[in-house]
UniProtKB/TrEMBL annotation:
InterPro entries: DHBP_synth_RibB-like_a/b_dom (IPR017945), Sua5-like_dom (IPR006070), Sua5/YwlC_C (IPR038385), Sua5_C (IPR005145), T(6)A37_SUA5 (IPR010923), TC-AMP_synthase_SUA5 (IPR050156). GO terms for cellular component: cytoplasm. Residues 11-197 form the YrdC-like domain. It catalyses: L-threonine + hydrogencarbonate + ATP = L-threonylcarbamoyladenylate + diphosphate + H2O. One of its GO terms (molecular function) is tRNA binding. Its EC number is 2.7.7.87. It is an enzyme of class 2 (transferase). ATP binds at R56, N60, S150, R193, Y228. Belongs to the SUA5 family. Required for the formation of a threonylcarbamoyl group on adenosine at position 37 (t(6)A37) in tRNAs that read codons beginning with adenine. This is Threonylcarbamoyl-AMP synthase. It comes from Szabonella alba. L-threonine binds at T33, H65, R120, A140, S142, S180.
Amino acid sequence: MTETPTLSPDAEGIARAAGLLCDGGLVAFPTETVYGLGGDARDDRAVARIFEAKGRPHFNPLIVHLPDLAAVERIALLDDRARAVAERFWPGPLTLVLPLRPDAGISPLVTAGLNSVAVRVPVHPVAQALLRDFGGPLAAPSANPSGRVSPTRAAHVLEGLAGRIAAVVDGGACAVGVESTILGLVDTPVLLRPGGVPVEALEALLGPIASGGDAAKPSSPGQLLSHYAPEAPVRLNVTAPEAGMLFVGFGPGAGQGAGGLSLSPLGDLVEAAAALFHLLRQADALAAGRVIGFAPVPETGLGRAINDRLRRAAAPRG
Ligand code: TXA
Ligand code: MG
């Protein structure tokens, strides 16, 4: 495999992508959060290829993508609480970790042999069309080499994975821009990763939610401390940029540094999340050995997911 074709998101492109997936190939596709690297979740060899293409440690389980709640019910066991969450937030940027059905038919490589499974119903029309045309469950981590910045455009996917995957479907830029929120519902609700659905919205339905996540013993690879790492060093909560620093602002008045970069000139968290990973790449390309400094971002709503990704980008490299 030396070439990775870009497919258009029309019926013909979707049909070609579904055909490649049926043959056990890997296809990157847009979701509302980030681009996913899809493979047939029932096919051990396809799933093994996902880990190989990403250079991802095998102990990290993958999210299974499905077109609707009925398809999820064939793979996972839902109680009334899980069904209420699903009906409120699906399709959308939420992943639920649920008990795995014994007869789910999912490759044990997807769940890393656990008896729970992460499931998600994306709202993106291209993801929906691909899932329906393919007609089965798709395992799909973010379509980037392990530990690097997640892709929010087809060009980002090709930068990291060209020649290693069968195709990418180009659906333009991702609207949400950070990965899905992961909520564990095997036992008491636990937040495994902040993401596109603010935890405040989940708590309005479920009551207080504990944060799970022990960086030393990650059950979610998003919990590995150094992650989303650009090449350049990253510093956070910069209020007064030093000379020579490449500054990325947030809000009015900020972001008038040398590069004039800003997560959101208006201080809008939705806009900032959508821009985050593209800006990390842009800043990295411009930095040329300089430190990238980020202005403070409020720790509410989508700001929690943004700050979580920025802390990982700034963490000491292992
Ligand atoms: O927005 C997203 O969620 C994107 C798009 C492509 O859908 N996908 C994504 O996948 O971020 P990935 O593989 O980068 O992250 C999957 C997360 C990991 O942190 C993994 O450990 C967690 O889901 N996970 C999967 N199965 C799990 C399980 N049984 N228990 C706990 N965590 C699990
Ligand atoms: Mg990822």
